[in-house]
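Handout, page 2. Input:
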Amino acid sequence: MVELLRNSLAVIVTSSGFTCQYHSCRPSGGYRIHGGRFPRCLCYNLSAKTSKKHLKRDGPNMISLRENGRTQFEDLMFGSEGRDIPRIVSNMVACVQSGLVCEEDEENVLIQRSKEEFDPSYFEQKFPPLGSSEIQKKPDIEHVGAAEPLTISAGISTEFEDKVHFLEERDEQILSKRVLMLSRSNKVRSVLELYRSLEISGLRLSFHACNSLLACLLRNEMLDDALKLFESMKANESTTRHSYSLVLKAIGNIQGYDSALKMFSKLQVECKVKKDFDVIVYNTMISICGKLNNWGQTEKIWRSMKEYGLVGTTITYCLLISIFVRCGQNELAIDAYSEMISNGLKPGEDAMQAIIGACTKEGKWNLALNVFQRMLNIGLKPNIVACNALINSLGKSGQVKLAFRVYDVMESMGCTPDAYTWNALLGALYRANQHADALHLFENIREQSSQVNLHLYNTALMSCQKLGLWDRSLQLLWQMEASGLSVSSASYNLVIGACEVARKPIIALQVYDHMVQQQCAPDTFTHLSLIRSCIWGSLWAEVEEILNRVETDVSLYNAAIHGMCLRGKIESAKKLYTRMRKSGLKPDGKTRALMLQNLPKDSIRQSYSWPRRY
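Output:
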């Protein structure tokens, strides 16, 4: 194909396992193509005397191609000045290293002849696709002997047309940098062509370049090609821990949690976990499990990581705490936090606030307060949710002073109290039996905030009931109705209860009538409180009326009988007891005991006398 006169030329071309090298010392000159995967050598001989291109077998392992005269191949590959210029021909790129020493007149003659004999169509032919390349027959090529078709195996099958480059650059570091730049630029076609050329040439990329190419394929949703590349990286032992994280995350996002878990289990068996897996790989799987709130599998992966001697990072424990708290596994979240502190790691703001919530739900207010104090010491500001949870936990534990200290800290940080804050403080005072303070705080809340809801009113009504402040409870009830709140039966029950404690049965009956007028259905607790109020007020007719009005309820009969016996209305209690038994209701133990105490002595003696023997 190329005629060179008295020149020193070295041409090396590599593609798909073939190495093409020009041998200037051969008698006829020419190129020798060594097939790395085939037991034969293809040699292109350059001759200036023959007029045809001949393809013949020179030996059992050699095929030679001779061409008449000098063609444009030299100008196409080397240029008129003999410089190293790579040219793309069909599916290949030729990179030539040459050192031409020609006489000036001979070079001019060759250039003129090449212009006359150049046939562009010969070089414009496309090679067959990779994997099925053959030497195509042409009319002016003479085939001598039989030759097996030359094939090139493809490493990665893509949607793009595969191209192989004849690489001029052989430095793996420089080529790796090129792959990095192409991958970061998202030039998928170019980087795949370059990678295939490197693979066929026997060159290897750096670990960083392989991971960058892998990430590029995954970004472009080419999962199949990415998995083939990943398998190739595993075969070449060029995978890193980052490679596993990239693949597992992609499989989890595209194919789902189950596929990612299966692959993770498979890799744990195949790979050397201590060498190939690091905490980041486990973090990836923990994150995948957390998206589905699968706390059970998350715990297994956490335990497995510790079995292999790996110590979690801050991200590991923050993920664990977040997942466990979100799934309601507060004990596991506290265990993860304790392990994190014991390993000398500093938890983040979100993790610490989540732990405060977990501790309050488990009743561990000491640990919650400790975490709260730690946040303040390192300059973090707990949010209002964490503060409310801590105040509520302290109030339930009877730590009223600590609850108000947390409230003071919250105000100093600029947090505005909301309805949950006020409800937690009122609840703390109510549980501590500081009912007067609770009512005083409620008045302050009404003056400072417009966020007075039904829960706050009910807490205040509970304090009024404990103190027997029936008039104050009535005022609160009118305020609730005037403010447009939907007053529930529980609120009316609290007002009736306050009247019961204050021995105001008439007021209780009036509240009951108003409740019915407001179309609020009374429940069992309403009737029980009302019956007790009427009994203490000796309103027996009203008691009978209430029992006749409502459906038969054993608890109401028991309460009425207890009150009648305690007030000395034994006959009325007996009648009510008889009525109760006829209705098929079963009295409780206290009712039976009261009835036995008030039965006639003859009846008792008769029921316990032994029969006489005759």
